[in-house]
Amino acid sequence: MNIKAAPFTLVGIDHVVFLVDDMERALAFYRDALGCQMGYSYPDLGMEQVWAGAALIVLWDTTHPGAKSAVPEVAGGRNVDHICIATSPCSPDDMRAFLAANDVAIEREAVHGGARGVGHSFYVFDPFGNRLELKGPAEYPDGR
After folding, report:
1. For 85-111, how does the pLDDT look when each residue is reduced to its tens digit (9 = 90+)?
2. Is the entire prediction scored with pTM above 0.70?
3. Which of 91, 98, 127, 135 could bridge 121 with an S-S bond, Cβ 3.0-4.6 Å?
4. Which range marks the domain in which residue 69 is found?
5. In 1-144, at which residue ranges do the beta strands (DSSP E only) sit?
């Protein structure tokens, strides 16, 4: 692979998505035991987010109908859906060109919330099958 220079810099971890099968138990641990503050809530997806400092931990309840796409094919097969890496500003076209030049396939694109607000994301896989979300800065504030 002939690596091309990135049109962005890495800022840090934006959020990590953990798959859980008992939301009350998960919140009791992250919110009550660890002291994470409640963040965004997506009841239609069975998803709760908690703040761990400046980053988010996303708890996605695989027993909820809205989590159908996150349920592992094998019970106990995995418990991390993806890790989101925050980037500096980069136009979607530049990101697409950069990923294509480095033979990195885009699984999907989305615009949704993260630790820094709502912005454009690219989902890709590393060579080992780990899903990564590359997320630019907020395109508009998250209302916090």
Report:
1. 899 999 999 999 999 988 889 999 999
2. yes
3. 135
4. 10-135
5. 10-20, 37-42, 47-52, 55-61, 80-87, 108-114, 117-125, 131-135
